[in-house]
Design brief:
Number of strands: 7
Distance between the termini: 24 Å
Strand order of the largest sheet: 1-7-6-5-4-3-2
Shape: globular
Largest sheet: 7 strands, antiparallel
Order of helices and strands: EHHEEEEEEHH
CATH class: Alpha Beta
Strand content: 35-45%
CATH topology: Alpha-D-Glucose-1,6-Bisphosphate, Chain A, domain 4
Helix content: 25-40%
Number of helices: 4
Mean pLDDT: 93
Oligomer: single chain
Length: about 160
Amino acid sequence: MTKTEYIYTLYIKTTPEKVWNAITNPEFARQYWGHENISDWNQGSPWKHITSDGQRTVKLVGNVLESVPPKRLVLTWAEPSDTSPQSEHSRVTFEIRPMKDMVRLTVTHSNLQAGSEMASRISSGWPRVLSSMKSFLETGKALDTWADYEHDCAK
């Protein structure tokens, strides 16, 4: 089975600490992502991606493979129903690098099954989430992250 990866780099006028908090703080993530990332963020710990609506549905799960605040975070990434070994789950790496008065954030989503539904969803989802994060960090206002998402994914 062919594997693929998705790499997205953006530049945000903020600090590495604020980007780290945007990813790891549930209250912060809810404001621009519409979901919460829940963990203690220590290497080996589990993490969950949960809807912030009244249902509190677990959308994604994984483990923290690497945690170096506020520079690097590596997670496994799978749907809760995925019973395959962790080594087969996709991985998300957040690289946070200061550059003068801004941050370069590179998100690499790797070990994806080429042509899979997950690969399709993240290729539409990451640009939306990261654009909303950038807007929120720079202006205090998030984008409507999931506006017309189903239409976007159907293309």
